[in-house]
Amino acid sequence: MRVVVGRLGRPHGIRGEVTxxxxxxxPDMRFAPGTVLFxxxxxxxxxxxxxxxHSGRLLVTFDGITDRTAAETLRGFVVEVExxxxxxxxxxxxxxxxxxxxxxxxxxxGVVIGVVxxxxxxxxxxxxxxxxxxxxxxxxxxxxxxxxxVDIAARRIVIDPPDGLIEQAD
Length: 170
Hints:
Blueprint: E1 2-12, E2 17-22, H1 27-30, E3 36-39, E4 45-54, E5 57-62, H2 68-72, E6 78-82, H3 97-100, E7 104-107, E8 112-121, E9 126-131, E10 137-141, E11 149-151, E12 156-159, H4 165-169
Parallel strand pairs: 7-12
Antiparallel strand pairs: 1-2, 1-6, 2-5, 3-4, 3-6, 4-5, 7-8, 8-9, 9-10, 11-12
């Protein structure tokens, strides 16, 4: 399975480095030297030569990209990595978005509320966008207080929503 890990930005310097808008919680692993990245929407592959952090930004050099002109041709590309479907983060309290999407969401009473359509990453917290049987979307804060059970193996999430959250969607 391919997952998006970043968006390539402007060149940095004259030796082919590009800035990366990181879209993964594991940038040092996903952009490790030797990693093959796939350009979204094409068969083009880029192999990471080296990386380093500069002023809080990830800078990457790819094999065969040796100057600023070549680096400029990469600007705007969204890059993906190949990840095993059953791969999980090291921390048992973390989940990949792709593992949460499609899980059935039910209340503490076992009543099905809907299915996770998307995980939305906001500056203050993550939200689960739950599509209800009525085709409405309910945003549930992805906090232990409101989401006490996540069972990826069973594709099931149990929520204890704040008062009024589910009723608003009815």
